[in-house]
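G., before I forget:
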Amino acid sequence: MSAIGEGLLEALRLVVRGDAELFAIAGRTLLVSGTATALAMLVGTPLGYLLGRARFPARTLILAAAGTGMGLPPVVAGLVIWLLLVRSGPFGGLDLIYTKQAMIVAQFVIALPLVTAFTAAAIQALPPRLPDLLTVLGAGRARAFWLLAREARLGLLAAVIAGFGAVVSEVGASMAVGGNLAGDTRVLTTAIVTETSRAANERAIAYGLVLLAMAFAVVIVLTVVQQRGAR
Amino acid sequence: MPVRRLLAAACALAVLAAACGGSGDGDGGAIILATTTSTRDSGLLDELVPRFERETGIRVKVIAVGTGAALRMAGEGNADAVLVHAPEAEAAYVASGDLVGGRLVMANEFVIVGPPADPARAAAAPDLRAAVAAIAAHGRFVSRGDDSGTHQRELALWRAAGVDPRAVAREETGQGMGATLAIASERRAYTLADRGTWLALRDALDLAVLVEGGVDLRNVYRVHVVNPERHDGVEAARAEAFAAFLVAPATQALIGRFRAAEFGRSLFSPAAAAGGGG
């Protein structure tokens, strides 16, 4: 049977058997990428809101920077974070290199431009008079933020999906700053690299299928939330 | 309100991540071991490291890169110990004082593999130099190109045979041994491999060992400790403990037995008894 068929079977076998390593790696992937996406939202949503609403001199420049950052190769982000966190680097004293936290930092840097740019676009897509209308109706600044965010939820959820999709699938940054340590910083993508280099293609395909299934599960939850709001 | 719920979930996750802090270090702290891909891909370190961690409580973070990159990490104080196989390159770091306490751990051999039909007739050559020259003249060669110990040895072989590698039909993969072997197999080309990785992967490859044996193909692994007097933050005592563990008789016996039953021969032969020296 072909390697792909074997991989499918192996994936099923691992899931059915409740393979401990598979579930540990999948759980770790979810924790690291979920946290990085959450942090990117915490920073990127207000930033994107500001970029979408406010008018200030550096605005175009920051928007362009966010747009460029959307194409930032993860491996470049990984290299920069590695140079910053490594023992001889400026933040080496934090002892963060080769930890999950370092991976979260790198994935945050990858997701932030995506979340920011998508949020800015979603806010700008709202009817231009809406913010003024809210002010006239007596909504405060915080209240206006919530109401606008609610109106822009389709775009905001697209921002989350894009951010999560980017970090859960990247391998370069996780490999560089996490070190692909078994049982500690090995996530699904770096595990696939490891298994491939060991010629364990069936297991690599199994991990790939689990990664796809996991991404699908997360996106389907977000999409249900998104589309429910659309009605 | 989905947006607010989403932001609340984001906050919760962030707090959770902060709480999950620490890096799972053992009671005895941790060290960073920079090493080659061959020691990891063969599975040897998966066998040795957990044993060391159980005995000492010191966690070992194995960062598998090429030997060149591993040595550079050590030279900048970004690792505590290295396990590498490029004697010439190691000597430079020992001379500069970045590496101390070097000792022999194990050895195996490099082998030249290529298409079973052997179009360059390398296997028929009278010696290693002639074989390398034959490949240069009539064969295609796939190189690691990643400054690994294997790559450095390949360049030394061209030099010894008086061949300019730029004149050879030669491509660099920039990847590990497994990927490079797979590419050589697909392209019906020759390549240099360590015997451990070759044995572990040969079933998936359409390649054969064509040249082997001799002192010029000997592959020697040494462990070194990064000099704490030159680099701040180096965990020298723990690194020394790991180096001592690698050359201890019990570990050496384990290395000799590693996967020997599976392949009918040992992947690495213990070498600590043969003497140390950096």
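Chain A has a mean pLDDT of 90. The domain at 3-230 of chain A is CATH 1.10.3720.10 (MetI-like fold).

More on Monday.
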